[in-house]
Design brief:
By secondary structure, the chain is mainly alpha-helical. 52% of the residues lie in helices and 7% in strands. It has a three-stranded antiparallel β-sheet. It has a two-stranded parallel sheet with strand order 4-5. Strand 4, helix 5 and strand 5 form a beta-alpha-beta unit.
Length: 332
C-alpha cells in the first residue's frame, strides 16, 4: 500500500461514514498522509479527524475512532490502525504490503508520483527575467503539470515566484562554468529565500557534493541491474522485511507526497532534498543488504528482492532529477 493508496482508503472510509449518517459535514477533496509525528506510531499518520471536528461537531478522537472502524473494514493491507494524541490516525502496514510500493514504482516508471491531486486547478505564473527566478518558474510549472494542474506563464498571471536572485556577475557565466546540470541544482536546491549555490564545489566528484551523491546512486542502481543481467539474476517483487531496507522503502514511499507538496508550495528544493535522502538511503542499503551475491554465494530470492528495490530507488532518483531538468546518467 502506497501513501496515495492509503489517502484514498481514508477518503473512502470518510465518504462511507457520511453517506451512512455516522458523521456529518462536508467531505474534503483529499486527505494528506505523512509520517507520524512525536508520540505517533506505525508507518503513516493523518490529522484529518482534527480538520473535521468543527464541521462535524464532534471531538477529533470520536471522529478518528469512527474512521478507524471504517478503515479496518476494508483495508487488508493494514495490520493496525491506532488513534493517538488528540485524534491522529496512525497506520501500520501489514507484512508484504511494502512490496506494493516497489511494484507501483516499477509499473509507473519515472512517472511514479505523478498524479491528479491538482486536477482542475489553473495556475498562471508571471514570466521571469532574472536567471534564478526563470529556472525556478520553469521547474514549478513542470511540477504543477505532473500533479494534473493547468499551469503556464502569461501576462494575466495570478502568481509571481519570488526568489533571492543571483548577482548579474555570477549569472552571466554560471551555465558555461558549471554546465547545465550543476547550475540548475545550484539554483534549485536552496530554498527560495536562501542564496543560490554557485561555487565550483558543485563539480566535485565526491559524496561531499549532494548532486554527485544523487547521480552516483542512480548510476549505481543501473550498474547493479546490468551486472545482475549478466549473471542471469532476475529481479523479484521487492517484498523484503530486512531491517536495512526500511529507510529506503520509506523514502521511496514518500516520493508521491513530496512531489505533490513541492507543487503546492512551489518549492522544487523539496524534491532535491528528498532525492538526497533517497540516495543516501540507497547507498546505505546496498552496503548492508547486498543486491548481488559475493564470492561463492549463490543467487537467492533475497538477491532478487533487493534488486527490485534497487531498481525502484533508481527510478525515483531518475524521475526526480528529470522534474528538476537534470540528467540522470546511466554511467558515472
Amino acid at each position: 500500500m502506497t501513501p496515495a493508496d492509503l489517502s484514498r482508503t481514508v477518503l473512502s472510509a470518510l465518504r462511507r461514514a457520511v453517506d451512512e449518517g455516522v458523521l456529518a459535514g462536508p467531505v474534503p477533496d483529499s486527505v494528506q498522509v505523512g509520517r507520524p509525528g512525536p508520540g505517533g506510531s506505525g508507518d503513516y499518520a493523518t490529522s484529518v479527524a482534527l480538520r473535521l471536528a468543527g464541521p462535524a461537531r464532534r471531538s477529533p478522537r470520536d471522529i478518528a475512532e469512527i474512521l478507524r472502524a471504517e478503515i479496518l473494514r476494508s483495508a487488508p493491507d493494514l495490520s493496525r490502525v491506532d488513534v493517538t494524541g488528540p485524534g491522529f490516525l496512525n497506520f501500520t502496514l501489514a507484512p508484504g504490503s511494502r512490496a506494493e510500493v516497489v511494484r507501483a514504482v516499477l509499473g509507473a516508471g519515472t512517472r511514479y508520483g505523478h498524479g491528479d491531486t491538482l486536477a482542475g486547478t489553473t495556475v498562471i505564473l508571471a514570466p521571469a527575467g532574472e536567471l534564478r527566478a526563470a529556472v525556478r518558474t520553469e521547474t514549478v510549472l513542470r511540477l504543477l503539470r505532473a500533479q494534473g494542474a493547468d499551469a503556464r506563464t502569461g501576462p494575466d498571471a495570478t502568481e509571481r515566484l519570488t526568489v533571492r536572485p543571483v548577482s548579474a556577475t555570477l549569472a552571466g557565466d554560471l551555465f558555461a562554468r558549471l554546465g547545465t546540470d550543476a547550475a540548475r541544482w545550484g539554483l534549485l536546491r536552496p530554498a527560495a529565500h536562501d542564496a543560490a549555490a554557485t561555487g565550483d564545489d558543485l563539480l566535485v566528484q565526491h559524496e561531499s557534493n549532494p548532486l554527485f551523491t544523487v547521480r552516483y546512486a542512480h548510476a549505481r542502481t543501473r550498474a547493479l541491474l546490468r551486472n545482475a543481467a549478466a549473471l542471469g539474476i532476475p529481479r523479484g517483487d521487492g517484498d523484503t522485511h530486512e531491517p536495512g531496507a526500511r529507510t529506503l522503502l520509506d523514502s521511496i514511499g514518500d516520493h508521491p507526497g513530496v512531489l505533490a507538496a513541492a507543487a503546492r508550495h512551489r518549492a522544487p528544493d523539496r524534491v532535491a532534498r528528498h532525492l538526497e535522502r533517497t540516495a543516501e538511503a540507497f547507498l546505505h542499503f546496498q552496503e548492508t543488504c547486498r543486491p548481488l551475491p559475493v564470492g561463492d554465494e549463490k543467487p537467492s530470492a533475497a538477491h532478487r528482492t533487493r534488486l527490485a528495490l534497487a531498481e525502484a530507488a533508481g527510478t525515483v532518483l531518475a524521475g526526480g532529477l528529470t522534474l528538476l531538468g537534470i540528467d540522470a546518467p546511466e554511467h558515472l
